[in-house]
Amino acid sequence: MKKYMIAVAIFVICSSMLGKNQMQKDTFDYEGHRGCRGLMPENTIPAFINAVRLGVTTLEMDAVISKDKQVVISHEPFFNHEITTKPDGSFITEAEEKQYNIYQMNYDEVVKYDVGMKPHTRFPQQRKMQAIKPLLSKVIDSVEAFCKEQHIPPPQYNIETKSEVRTDNVYHPEPKEFVDLIMQIIKEKKIEQRVIIQSFDIRTLQYVNKKYSKVKTSYLYEPTGYKSLLDRLRDLGFIPTIYSPVYTQVTPELVEECKQYKMKLIPWTVNDIETMQSLKKMGVDGLISDYPNMFQLIR
Q1: Model pTM?
Q2: Where are the beta strands (DSSP E) in 83-179?
């Protein structure tokens, strides 16, 4: 009887430890940047499907708004010269790219431009294929259907508003309208619990916090002058769910500071195994990468 009780006790302890380790593993956030930009055309449905297939827990993406108020997935509010082929088969040049302003184009015009066939000089491994800038609604429908078909858990959606004060009403609407258009879709799809709204524009985050307080927020940061984390949070006016700086800004001190504020720390954009391992060991809560296929080497 005594031996039996000891065996039960050992089983319970081991099961508890396994559960704890599994929980820790599951809470680390593996985010595919623009889907999987290093492997497939960025911010496209094939890239998002492939990222999910590779096991990401979150799909990172960028949103812009078209003239007819559609939420379009695109890193820039215009057609970037690095990835765009015009309807006539020629490439958009760097000198003219900002003339192709998506905020001044209806979506039926946007889909005439290809963003998957032009060779990307910075991502030579990227598979070339015909692709368009998709609607947010179509991304969600496609990913959710794929996950259901494959019997795998659906991911989170980390959606960045591409906005700044100086381009309000030129390349995008003001934050209130921008966020409301995104959230209308999120609510229709009933995925509020799996959505993060991220931005460099603190106005976006402030509005989300005020109007949609149950939605997670991520404060994107790239150094533009010295301010302490506390000063930045004072400017923001609340504690976001996630603090997301460029990965070169992460230090053990920043990790501890984020823990004190009960914020998750998820840096961007990490594209080599050594740095991924170093940051994970340091205690970050997730990583954003163009190469989510690398995540399997650090899990």
Answers
A1: 0.91
A2: 156-161
